[in-house]
Structures are given as structure tokens and as C-alpha cells.
Amino acid sequence: MAGLDMSISGLASGFDWKSVVDQLTAVERTPQATVRTEQATLARRRDALGQIATQLSDLQTKAAALGDATLYTRRSTGSTDTSVATVSAANGAVTGTNSLNILTLATPSSWLGATSGVINPLNAADVASGVAATGPTMAAAGWGATFTAGTVTIGVKNNVTGAVTNTQISIAANETLQQVLVKLDSAIGSTGSATYSSSNDQVTLATPAGKSLILGASSDTSNLLSCLKLFTPLVGNNAVSASKLGSLRLSSPVAEQPLTTALTYGVTATTGTFSINGVSIDYSSTSTLSSVLNSINDSAAGVQASFDSSQNRIVLKNKEPGNRGVVLANNGGNFLTAFGLISGTLNSGTDLEYSINGGSTLKARSNTITDADSGLTGLTITAAKVGTTTLTSSNDNGAAKSAIDAMVTSVNRVQSLISSLTVSNRDSAGKITAGVLAYDQTIFQLGSSLRSLLAPQLSGSPSSTIRGLSDLGYSTSGYSNEMTATNAASLTTALTSQLSEVQKFFSTTTTGLSAKITTFIKPMVDEISGTLPQRQKGLTEQSSRLDDQLASMERRVLANRERLLAGFRAMEAAQAKSNSQIQFLNQKLGITS
Questions:
Q1: pTM higher than 0.85
Q2: Environment class of residue 306 by beta-carbon count within 10 Å: exposed (0-12), middle (13-18) or buried (19+)?
Q3: To pair with 250 at 20 to 30 A between CA atoms, which of 3, 218, 235, 574?
């Protein structure tokens, strides 16, 4: 007895009472299905209203675009030769055709750093074979690039026979300039032919009489000739360094540059500042020359800084074309002085010169001609090269047409959606399926009201010639509220010859179609007080009340189920007890089954 689980259906009685309870519970839950069906219907109606609100909001946006007066003042532009000049137009720009003649393009000015007295020569004294000065070692010399040891080929050509004698010499990093010049002498075949002049800061290779020099070969592994800036000379001429050998190095700190004027800082012991066109640039003793030039380029100084290796100078080029100057100032330290910029010179640029429609020569400070320069209201011209072209500016009717088409498309989406949600369909068997909002007269009437709003106005139209969308080539049928473009020519004609009337029809305050559509739609879609959001809210609240009703119904079902289960468990216990007593009596009486 004590070990029997009375919750097991039919353990003592042999009767599956739990299945009976499950069936009775299912029957009692049947009314809940009806409530859930009602909830599903409410959800579909809420979603349908949301779809309509979304489409109406889209229509309101499309109509608002047509109410923007700037839509009708847009311009399209063109140039018969875009390689000479292009043109763009602001809203309301002058329309028409204008010939343009570019006489001179604007070019930027450049500030050229000084080339003398700025950089120390490679050596303070002349160097040649047999003189006291040995000069620096190759690795320690102030080349513009890092020296590479290796081989160099020197060719000597006989100008009469054309025969060439090539001599390959090896150059080590620890060799002095004098040792290298001696090797060059040997290769040329004339002692004292290779010399260095400290005053010119150049190396000269004297060509023997009747000979010519050929410097370098593709097999060379040293960059000696590049460091010496030596190139093969004309037949019979001497080879002379193309420019001074003492050079600034982009990768080296500014404190280690070979400057004739010692660099000072002024802000702190190791930091300084200067300005270009009023923009401050900072530097320190550890700043590389390249990083200082990058700081200039990244600043708002309006110049492009670069290093001219052929002249060993810094160049500041205005980013904007036009004959403008460059204003320099040492603020803390002498950077601009030490690097030869203060003593530099201005290479003047040119201003743009042009004429319009054969008129007098006009000027602009850049290659962009504004309407203030040209007198062509709203037009901006960009010159690209000297030459002539014809510029056009006309009404951009395409923008207005696209906006009208977009609004009509949005209208049709609304009407199509309303129709699909309110229509009732009969299948082949005669069964009628009603739309989600089939009996919603407010929504049904919405389609008709919208159609009436777009119909021709009998009076009060802001335009004297356009009273409705039908005057722009759109029409509706007696079977549908949707609109169709039945006469494209009407819209084209209106936009071409009556653009101001089209603008009045759509964008006039209060009476324009854009304002009317907004007035019609806004009370329905406003998120706070709109009719459709409020109806959606009411349906949500109604569904919530049904949730409460379902919860109450389920509580009753569960309570009844528990009473039934308790009764059957008690029956099972009583049956088990009765079975036990019968078994006991049978044992006492000796009755066996």
C-alpha cells in the first residue's frame, strides 16, 4: 500500500482516467481558440493600418519634395569642349549660351630657397692627388644619399678610332675623397685629371685630348657617380658635378644638416617654430628634414613643400594657382634663415585671363571663375586649358519630372494597398474571402477621398492653366483609383513652356497640391495624434484585454483539471485499499484465484 503511486492512471483500478481528464480539459479549452482567432484578426488589422500609414507617409514625403520651390530652379549645364572648361550651376542660375575664351591659365607661385651660402661644401679645401687635403671618407661625407661601396666603371674612348678602354675600380666606404680621386685618375689614364674644388663644391674629371669619357655601366655596384653627381659629358668635354655636392639629407635630423648658419631653436633649447602664411610649424633638433616638410604639407599654410635635390634647396609651391606671394616668419629660432628660405626668391605665378562672348579680357585669381568674376549669376566655371568652348545653362526639367513621377507612383501604391485590403474575393467554389479591412468604411473612403484630392480643381487653383494632374497627362479610370500616364507629351510641354505654372500648381503655400496632400495626410499619420496610429493603439489595447481574458479562462481550466485529477487519485487509492482487503480475506479463507 505505502509504496503505490496513486498518480499513475489505472494502477489499481485498471481504468485510464488520466486520458479522460486530458480530453475533458481540451474540450474546456475550445472557447480559447475563438479568442485567439479574434486576436489574430486584430493583429492583421493593426498591421494593415500600419502599412497604410507607412505608404501615406511616403506619399507625404514625395509631395513635400514637389513643394520645394528650388526644385523648379535647378539647372543643367554643358560645355562643347570639356577639356577647355566645365561649368556648374546653382539653383536659379542664369540660363542661356555663352562663349568662353581661355587666354592664360592660372599657375601657382613658388618660393625658391637660396642656393648659395646655405649648405657647407663637401670639404673646406680643394682635394686632388698630391695636395695636403684628403677630404672626408666616403661613408662620412655629406652626400645627399647614403653611400654604397662597390665597383664603378670608367670608360675612355678614342675619338679617332672609336675604341673604348673600360676600367673597373673598387671603392670602399673608408676611403677618403683623395684616394677615390687618385683611382679615377688611374682609370682615366692621366694624373691630376680628377679634382675637387671647394669654392664650386664640385668634382671635375678632365678629359684627355682626343678622348671622351663614358661614365658608369649597368654592372656597377657602387653609387659613387650619383653621389658625385657625375654624368657622361658630351664628346671631348670634361665631366663636372651637375650641382654642388654638399647636400641636405631628408632622412637626417635638422640638427645634423651641413648648414653654414648654425640652427637655433628659440622656444626651448631643442625646439623652435616658424610660420608660413601665418600658420605655425613646430620643429625640434631630432626632427628629420622630411618630417618638417611633411608638417608644412599637412598644415593649413596652403603650400606644398619639397626638396629640389638638383639645386640643394627647399621649394614652397602654393597649392592654389594664381599670382600670390608666400609670407614667411621665424617665430622661435632661425629655421627659415638657416635653410635659406628667408633669403629665397619668389617665382611668380600667373592669374587666369579669359573673355566671355568676345568681351574685354577678364582676370581671376585661380582657374575657377565665380559668378562674381564673370557676372554670370549662379555659374561656376572651371578652366582646364587655353582654348575656346561654348557653355550652356538651361532649366533642369528632369528633376521636376522625376519628382512628379515619384509622387504618382506613391499615390498608386497607396491606392493599390487600400484596394487589396478592402476587397472581397469569390473563388471558383463560390467561397468569399473578405480583405482584412473589408468592412472598414473609413479606409474604404480614404481611397475615394485621395482620388478626389488629385482631381482637377474647379476653382481656387493657384495656376491659371494647370488645374489638376490630368493637365500634366495623368488620368484615372472608372474602375480604379490608381493613376496612369496617358499623355507624356502634356507633362513635357508643361515643364518646358509652363514651368512657372507647374511650380505654382505644386508649391504654392496652402493652395498648392503639395500643401493640400500634407494637410490631408498629416492628421492620419502623426505619430502622437494621428488617426491611424491611434487606431493601431486601440487594437493593441483590445488584444491585451483578450490576453487577460485568455489568462482567466486558462486558470479556470487548470482548476477544474486539478479537481478531476484529485478525485480520480482518491478513487485509485480507494480501489487499491479494497484490492488489498480482498486479497487478505482470500488468504485467510484459503481461497485462491
A1: no
A2: middle
A3: 218
